[in-house]
Amino acid sequence: MDTLKIFKDLKDMLIDTGIELDGNMMHAHEVM
């Protein structure tokens, strides 16, 4: 099963995006 690998890749993507959109991500978390 590659589930863990896929999850890790997704997490890395989210981290990369979070670096660019750190402020927006924090704001989204507050709204949710």
Secondary structure layout plus pairing:
Blueprint: H1 3-20, H2 22-31
Would you give an account of this structure?
- With 32 residues, this protein is an all-alpha fold.
- The chain has one domain.
- The chain contains two helices and no strands.
- The chain has helices at residues 3-20, 22-31.
- The longest helix has 18 residues, at 3-20.
- It is elongated, with a radius of gyration of 12 Å.
- The termini are far apart.
- The mean pLDDT is 74.
Structure summary:
This protein has one domain (1-32).
Distance between the termini: 32 Å
Q: Helical element count? A: 2
Number of domains: 1
What structural class should be given to the helix and strand makeup? Answer: mainly alpha
Main attributes?
single chain; 32 residues; mainly alpha
